Amino acid sequence: MLYLNRRALAAIDALIVLARAPAPGRMQRSEIQARLGLTDRSFESALFELVKAGMVESRRGVGGGYRLSRPVEALTVMSVLQALGETGRPATEGGDAPEAAANGPAIRRLQRDFWNGVEAKVVDMLSRTTLADILENEDALKRDGAPETAEQQRVREHADAIQGA
Questions:
Q1: Cβ atoms within 10 A of the Cβ of 60, count?
Q2: What is the DSSP letter of 72?
Q3: How confident is the model over 79-97, as pLDDT tens digits?
Q4: Are 80 and 50 in contact (CB under 8 A)?
Q5: Distance (Å, rounded) from C-alpha 165 to C-alpha 163?
Q6: Which of 26, 29, 91, 150 has the fewest CB neighbours in a 10 Å radius?
């Protein structure tokens, strides 16, 4: 299954903060970190990788800071993960090697095939989900007058924390 570490999640959250920044301004790294409540160096590493991948533009000096360099519709969750080198672990990791599993008992092959299929669907979903989709979902949660589910409340609180609300 796909595993997202803190660095990958912080990178996605940073992109959301930058997408919500007033245009055409730039945000200082410390401001992004404060909005996210992050203090660790993994965030700095993730931000550097986003700049290197051309997803975020960086400028030094007066009026400097960070801003998105691509439209939110062009940034998929998977492209962010790939920029960070975080494309997940294979389903067979920690178990039999793929060739051993292929020649093993039928139940092991079925398990491997099942989890590989799940992983393929997750990768497909992450490849189609853009930053624009995430922002639209957050906005819908804020507009929706229906009672929030526990999951919607968690997403809203996370989004509010990111926005510094």
A1: 7
A2: G
A3: 999 999 886 554 444 444 4
A4: yes
A5: 5
A6: 150
Longest CA–CA span in the chain (Å) reads 64
The model's pLDDT over 101-126, given as tens digits with 9 standing for 90+, comes to 556 688 888 888 898 888 889 889 99
CA distance 137 to 60: 33
86: tokens are 């975080």
CA distances from 64 to 6, 30, 59 (A): 26, 12, 5
**Would strands 65-68 and 56-59 be described as parallel, antiparallel, or unpaired?**
antiparallel
Complete domains list, the chain, with CATH = 6-88+130-163 (1.10.10.10)
Query: Which of helix, strand or coil describes residue 27?
Result: strand
Which residues are paired to 154 by β-bridges? none
Residue 75 to residue 70: CA distance in whole angstroms: 7
Q: Write the DSSP assignment of 79-135 as a string of letters.
A: HHHHHTT-----TTTTSS-HHHHHHS-HHHHHHHHHHHHHHHHHHHHHHH-BHHHHH
Contact call for residues 146 and 90 (beta carbons, < 8 A): no
Sign (positive or negative) of CA dihedral 153, 121, 135, 144: negative
Percent with pLDDT over 90 in the chain: 30
